[in-house]
Structures are given as structure tokens and as C-alpha cells.
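Lab notebook, bench 4. The sequencing result for the construct came back, and we need a structural model before the next group meeting so we can plan mutations. Quick request posted to the team channel:

Model the 3D structure of this chain.
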Amino acid sequence: MRLPIRDLLLTVGVFATSAALLWLVGAGTRGGPALVEPVPVLDGAGIAAALNDAMAKVVERALPGVVSVHTDRQQLVPETVLSGSLGPQVKMRKVRQPGVGSGVLVSREGLVLTNWHVVAGEDVLIRVTLHGNEEPRRATLVDRDESLDIALLAIELRMPGETFPWMEFGDSDLMRPGHFVFALGNPLNLAETVTQGIISNRSRRVSDTLDSYLQTDCTINPGNSGGPLVNLKGELIGINTRLVIGPSESPSGQAYGLAIPSNEVQDAYERLVHKGRPRGYLGVTVDDWPVASYQWGRQPECAVVVGVDRGSPAAAAGLRKDDLIQSMDGELVRSSAEFFRRLRQRPVGETLVLGLKRGAEAVEVRAAVVDLKTIFEAEEVPESVEVAGLTVRGLRRAERARLVLPERGGVLIERVGEGSALEGKVVAGEVILRVLERTAGELESGVQEVAVLVGRLEKCLVGGGYVDVLRAQGSVERLTLVGE
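Done. Here's the predicted structure in C-alpha cell form:
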């Protein structure tokens, strides 16, 4: 047992030393006192104690900016009642459906950011619970960005000029796999829960409809949605949005979660506060140069086009897969992060001049930035289908972006009819991701197309089987259908 313990202490020592150096550098930049005495040498127990104190201070600094979000929604449910000689009659009754989530204060005036899916719906009563105060406060919806799954709330003031502690934005582009992070929030209605982990992946493959999320191994559960992901400086570097959908053998989150990067969140926040500034859209997916191509040399400075949306401004401009974007309006583009950072700063209506390398040829194209909202609104709504008491349809692009789902597959439940095999088990607005018939063997791990899903769903509703359902809180649950 000596070797593992020694390795652990060495790892902890490296982290504690790094944290101390970062603190000292930060103190110097903040105008703090210069180092006047040497740092004492710590033994294993001292290193562990210093690490404990450092992490606890980060959490103490961040917690006042975290809120619990409680919602009550009105929902129509069927109810069978006896009506004299007419016999049993089905009537729709309004019930309140409670929900929980998390949020983060981002302004002194009491503005809160959370996920849109936490507060979505009509006639939703929203309340928030602040740090150190168990009495809920009313909150109202200011605005939302459905494609990004972000909502902005305002806490109801109890006195003029009331102020609140808030959390500052960090730079999510600086986060790398292995960086320590904390997830704070209200999972399973357990307020002010803190979990610690690392950035597992930056998901560098990104587009301007947001295919990029920070992946973390911090424990994320239903109720964490909308809460902050925090770095070692106590800064907001992401909004926890949902679990990673697990493999076919287990639809659980597998202890991995996704967070919307803070740079995207801050851009959305500024657009929602300063109403009228639309979100730009180009319709291109880019990545950095593949690691395998430069592991023995220097990484090329560019952004690689890995996808172009059909009918997008990028497609109209002639951008192609495998093009290398080397400049924007004459300024060098060194990475995918730099490309999107600059794209976020360009207003809708502006024309970009992109310098490309296509094979051995240098190419220049011009692409117009358009309003993403108009793209989503112009998209045709998929046709609804009746399936053994259920009404379902395919998902729109904005819904996929909000739900963090692949480009194809999955059906949205629009209505649950009386007598359906899923009556009482699912509600409108939830998504069926996968279907397994009893005789089909192992469930396919790949994406199931809408047509395949609908066909299998009909068989399962009648003959029995299993369905994986994405709940509103972000969890995935496997339901058993017994059939007729």
C-alpha cells in the first residue's frame, strides 16, 4: 500500500504547489503584498490540510451566488368521472406539477441565469431560494434563448435598491481537460450541494448553433440543471445543463455531465439584457487541426471546417468540408476557439471575408452573418404521427440544440391519449430516444432514425418492450411496456 499512498501524496503536493503559485501570481496582479518569507515545506498531512482549506475557500466564495429554482406548472391530465346514466366520462383536469433546478446570480440587481428547460412552459410559477435564506422569493422570466437553453430571471425585490452577491464570468476557452472544477446546485432538491471533479473534454468540435459543451465528471443529477460549473478562482465557467446520455445498456448519465461554456453564456446574457441584439449565425462547424496530424510537429494555426449546414450562409458562400480557415477580415485565425470568439463579436448583417486554404490553393470567400432566430423560425415543423394512443413528431433543430441531442433520431411526445400503454408514465414535452422490442435482442447503440423509432414504438406499445425517455429534468429513464 505504500506506493499508491506515496503517489497520491505526490499528486496532491503538485496540485497544492500549483495552487499556491497561482494564488501568489494572482495576489501580485491584484496589487497584494510581495512575498516576504519562504513558503514552508509541508509534509503529507500538511499538504492535504492546505488542499482542503484551499478548496473549501473556493466553495465558500462561490456559494452565495448560487440559487435553488422551484417551479409549479399547470398541466392537463385526463380524469375518469361517473356521470349518471352516461356512465364513465373522461374530463381534463388542471394539476400543478412541481419541478426543481438551479441558477446562478450574475448581477448585483438580482438577475439569475438558469436553463430554459428548468422554467419552460406557460403559467409557470417561479421561486428561488437564496444562500442562507430558506424562505423562497418570487422570480419572473425576463427573456430566454431557447436554442442555447438559457433563461434570464429577475428576483422580486423586497426593498428599493436591494442588492445580491453575484458570480463573475470566467473564460471557458482557457479550460483544458484535467482542470479542477466544482458543480454547485440543487440536485434532487438537496440545496447547496457541491461536487468536485475535472474537465473531461472541451468538445472542441463546435458550430454557431452550439455543438460545443464542457464535459465534466462532477456528479450531476436532476436538479443540477441551470447551476454553475466553477473553476479554482470561483468564477463561472459553465452552466450545467444535463447528463451525457449513456450507452444502450444503461441509459443513465454514467457520472458525466455537460455544461454550456461561460463564453457562450455571457454572450447570451448580454443579448438578453440588451434586448434587440440578435444571435448571429453562419452555419459552419469547425475544429482544431487533428491531434494525430501534428503529434510529431507544430500544430497548424487555423480552424478546420468539418461541416456546413445545408442552406446556410456558409453554404451559400461556398465553404466546404476540410477547408482551412486561416483569416477573418484580414486577421489571422489560429484556432477554432479564436474563430468563434471573433464570430460572436460580429453583428447580424455584416459580411465576413474568410481567407481559406483549400488543398494547395488559397481561396477567399464572403459570408453574411444572419439572425439565428429567423433560421429556426423558418424551419418547417415535422409532421405529427399518431401511434397507438400517442402523438409524436420529429424534433426541430432548436429543440435538438436545447436538448443536446444528435442530428437525427428521437421523437417529441405531443400528446398522451387515454388508454395508451404510456399513459401516466410520460407527459407531453418529453422525448423518446430509443425503442427495444422484446424479440429484437440487444438495443442498438447508434442513433435510431425517426421512421425506425415510430415503427418500433408502435410494435412495443402493442406487443411489449422497452423505451428510453428523456425527462424534462435531463435524466434518461428506461420504461417497460407489457403490451396487450
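Residues 1-10, 20-36, 246-253 have pLDDT under 50 and may be disordered.
Will bring this to the meeting.
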